[in-house]
Hints:
Strand content: 25-35%
Protein name: Alcohol dehydrogenase
CATH topology of the largest domain: Quinone Oxidoreductase, Chain A, domain 1
Keywords: Metal-binding, NAD, Oxidoreductase, Zinc
GO molecular function, one term: alcohol dehydrogenase (NAD+) activity
Bound molecules: zinc ion
Number of strands: 17
Domain Enoyl reductase (ER): 19-358
Family: Belongs to the zinc-containing alcohol dehydrogenase family.
Order of helices and strands: EEEHEEEHEEEHHEHEHEHEHEHEHEHE
Number of domains: 2
Number of helices: 11
Amino acid sequence: MATTNHTGTQTAAVVPNPGPNAQCEIRHDIPIPTPDPDQVLVKLTHSGICHSDVHSIYNETPMETDIAGHEGVGIVVKLGSSASQHVKVGDRVGIKWQWSVCGTCAACAVDETACPNQNNSGRNVRGCFAQYQAAPAKDVTLLPPLNEDGNAADGLSSELLAPLLCAGLSMYSSISKANLSPGQWLVLPGAGGGLGHLGVQIAKAKGYKVIAIDSGKAKRKLCVDEFGADAFLDFKTDDIEAEVLKLTDGVGAHAVVVGVGSTAAYELAFKLVRRLGTLVCVGIPRTNFHLPVSPFEMIVRSLRVVGSSCGTRESMSELLELAKEGKVRAKVEVRELDAINDVVKGLANFEIGGRVVLRIPE
Ligand SMILES: [Zn+2]
Ligand SMILES: [Zn+2]
């Protein structure tokens, strides 16, 4: 078990064999990592669980490690010998999908989210479904400190911040890539889901008009009553294409940000966007799915298609500001780490609204 000097072994949810319907095993014999000189050791308290963790655990996207998770929040408990210029022991930090970027390549010079040399938490380095994780000091996200009593200011508790590290950041970045102006129309398929419900709040904070697409009364209430979406369309009962056109003077929305890994959402998206409009891909459908659009259609309608993965550290700071102002708040259900297999199954079946955050045992 973990000791107070943070050495020895720890508890983690391990995936021995990533593959279809793979199960995680809660194990207590995983060595606590020793931070390299440029790294910090983080004792995690919470870890959000993302649809892309399901893709990793089921090996639908390649998983080269045995612990998933990339929305980790915890406290720095140990510093590598050269890590002290970025953070100090006791800081509350977040560990994101982009566990590290090289900072020196051509992509990093423009937008580090496209770094070909990046390492990813839960893909090729051990992820956050564990008590401890080491990460480069320069790449962890400094979070607002906890109060002296160990509690957080309203809206800034660790379980509420965890989903911002991937779901929130991914939506912040992808909505930014749509290049909208206040008052313009944005369609958000999957608006009641883990990414979508944060997207609605981010888009409204920026003054865009939001058409939320999802299904059921609960998600309608969440999107419209709670987060202020301008319209809600139910994909099970509404003619989405006709309704979007009706709402947008017959020409379609300025942008569609697909934050859900559904091929149906991508198929529909091109019918919802106007000429000169933008489609942003951020939700991951099965990897052999191709966008249903021809160069001819792209040319005639002057469409723009952009991919977006995570977000930059600048986007993360801007998103944390929105959280501090109370404009973005994740809808969270907290479960214990040992419920992970249940949650993975629920995500795989698209049964989970908002975000599940796993509490890591102390
Ligand atoms: Zn994620
Ligand atoms: Zn790079």
